[in-house]
């Protein structure tokens, strides 16, 4: 809506991850129908879920639903919080060798007594549709075919589909996690993806606000609700919000709401384009996992 308080909002573009993801899932489902019609095997994703963390439960539930929408088989394997590392390694090993499973994920975070990195490295990189195994991370970093971590890939796809210019632009990535910040910065830097000038900012960065203000594109992935305020954003910049923190909200039936890393209500009036939370990056992440699973089933990156 155009009001005296939001002079730019008439031109602001809402980047709709939900509808973009729905369109891509339809494309995937069409491809699956072709594969099955020509006698091929239906893609099959397995997910391993440990414990009952609310966020993880929701993500995995949505991944299983996305499999249905794409025409994939899915298998959910659950363990309680007290599962041992050996039991999980056993599970990973059997998924690695199960010829019916094209790809699988182990939902993170895992309980503290489990060495997460050890589990990730036990996954056969040819079935690592999360793109977390060092082989995939390394191949991504040098631009070789591989599974690319779903959140950064989903953001690249959103920028592409919304024709947002990235080449030569100043891009700030807020956060340096293995799942989002690091691969995001790597992709935004690479010629075949962002081809941008990338700055990674984190909890120890000096002049963080000023660095953000110089950016044409801000990708916020620090997990701190409403961290990016209007005074940190250059007018006309593009803001991508990866945050999904559950904050208590007694006015909601479930007792919480999802908060992004961006103060959306204030920032939306400054930007050229912005992703909402929910309905922005989140649905794209799950959708890219589906695309990676389709690639696994079609042996797109690795022969088995
Ligand atoms: N936890 C948060 N994001 C992810 C993800 O993309 N994959 C897995 N396996 N765990 C996560």
The rough form would be described as: globular
For the sheet with most strands, the description reads: 6 strands, parallel
> Helix segment count?
10
* Through-space gap between termini: 53 Å
What is the strand arrangement across the widest sheet?
1-11-8-7-5-6
The CATH homologous superfamily of the largest domain corresponds to NAD(P)-binding Rossmann-like Domain
Structural class: alpha/beta
CATH architecture of the largest domain: 3-Layer(aba) Sandwich
The stretches of 5 or more residues where confidence is low (pLDDT under 50) are 1-6
What is the number of domains?
2
Order of helices and strands: EHEHEHEHHHEHEHEEEEHEH
Mean pLDDT across every amino acid position = 96
Record field, number of beta strands = 11
Give me the CATH fold name of the largest domain. Rossmann fold
Helix percent band? 25-40%
CATH class membership of the largest domain: Alpha Beta
Strand content: 15-25%
What integer value in Å does the Rg equal? 20 Å
Give a summary of the structure in a few sentences.
The protein is of the alpha/beta class. Helices cover 38% and strands 16% of the residues.
Write the layout of secondary structure elements.
Layout (H helix, E strand, L loop, with lengths): L12 E2 L2 H21 L6 E7 L3 H17 L2 E7 L5 H13 L5 E4 L9 H7 L11 H8 L8 H12 L8 E5 L6 H9 L7 E5 L6 H6 L3 E4 L17 E4 L3 E4 L7 E4 L4 H4 L5 E2 L6 H17 L7
Parallel strand pairs: 1-11, 2-3, 2-4, 5-6, 5-7, 7-8, 8-11
Antiparallel strand pairs: 9-10
The chain binds guanine (GUN).
């Amino acid at each position: 809506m155009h009001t005296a308080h939001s002079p730019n909002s008439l031109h602001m573009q809402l980047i709709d991850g939900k509808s973009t993801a729905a369109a891509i899932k339809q494309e995937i489902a069409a491809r699956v129908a072709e594969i099955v019609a020509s006698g091929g095997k239906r893609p099959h994703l397995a997910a391993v879920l440990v414990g009952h963390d609310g966020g993880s439960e929701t993500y995995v539930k949505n991944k299983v639903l996305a499999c249905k929408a794409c025409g994939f088989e899915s298998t959910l394997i659950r363990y309680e919080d007290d599962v041992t590392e050996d039991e999980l390694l056993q599970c990973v090993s059997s998924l690695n060798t199960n010829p019916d499973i094209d790809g699988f994920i182990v939902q993170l975070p895992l309980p503290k007594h489990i060495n997460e990195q050890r589990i990730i490295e036990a996954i056969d990189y040819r079935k690592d549709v999360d793109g977390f195994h060092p082989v995939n991370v390394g191949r991504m970093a040098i631009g070789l075919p591989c599974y690319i971590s779903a959140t950064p890939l989903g953001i690249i796809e959103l920028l592409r589909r919304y024709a947002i210019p990235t080449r030569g632009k100043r891009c700030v990535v807020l956060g340096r996690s293995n799942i989002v910040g690091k691969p995001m910065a790597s992709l935004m830097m690479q010629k075949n993806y962002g081809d941008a000038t990338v700055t990674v900012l984190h909890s120890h960065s000096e002049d963080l606000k000023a660095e953000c203000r110089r950016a044409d594109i801000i990708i916020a992935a620090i997990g701190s609700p409403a961290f990016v305020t209007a005074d940190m954003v250059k007018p006309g910049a593009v803001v991508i919000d990866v945050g999904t923190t559950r904050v208590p909200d007694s006015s909601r039936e479930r007792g919480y709401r999802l908060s992004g890393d961006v103060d959306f209500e204030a920032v939306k009036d400054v930007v050229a384009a912005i992703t909402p939370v929910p309905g922005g990056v989140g649905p794209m992440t799950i959708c890219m996992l589906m695309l990676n699973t389709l690639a696994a089933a079609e042996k797109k990156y690795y022969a088995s």
